[in-house]
Amino acid sequence: MSGTGDSQPSTLKSYANSGIAAVQGAVGSLTGNPVDQRQAEDKSAHAESERDASHVAAKAGPFNLSSSGAATIDNKDRRDGKSNQIIGSGKEFVGNTIGSDSLKREGRDQNTEGQGQEAAGQLKDFAEGAADRVTGTIGAAASSLTGNTQAQSDFENQHDKGKTSQRSVEAEAQK
User: Fold this and answer.
1) Above pLDDT 70, what percent of the chain?
2) Which of 47-56, 60-69, 128-137, 150-159 has the lowest mean pLDDT?
3) 64 near 80, Cβ under 8 Å?
4) Domain of 153?
5) Closest to 41 measured CA to CA, from 10, 17, 15
6) CA distance 139 to 4
7) Number of domains in the chain
8) Residue 105 CB contacts under 8 Å (≥ 6 apart), including other chains
9) Do 93 and 21 share a structural domain?
10) 56 vs 70, which has greater pLDDT?
11) Which CA distances in Å does 30 have to 33, 34, 36, 40, 78?
12) Which residues contact 31 (CB under 8 A, 6 or more apart)?
């Protein structure tokens, strides 16, 4: 599957490599073999960097791109929520500037509404992303077993888009 292959960073693969490194390190400690211990340290460091890389997401406006290479766009609630926050902040600023309490209040209300709208959109994107990742993983595995390479590729793309949606929400939440 492209989302978990050697060329793509994968969180799941990084955890597996961490486990292998732990076993290799234990063997090295028991035998006193410095080569095994060094290989375990190298594998552990590689697993950590792969785990970090699998969480990379870039955002340009409503467009998202993750380490999987898949691109997505924020759902409508997220986009409209951000827009309402910007417009609301502008109204609040103008209301403060000209001394209009009603415009200031209207702006504050619109900003608050936009925050809720954006949060609802983030929840939708995250949930849909999780569903796409699960469906994509299972579908790709089943397609691989049946030898249907086109379906396998389609399911891998679904997985990758789901990962991108989730990473986008996670990146915003960490701000």
Assistant:
1) 78
2) 47-56
3) no
4) 74-175
5) 17
6) 14
7) 2
8) 95
9) no
10) 70
11) 8, 11, 10, 13, 54
12) none
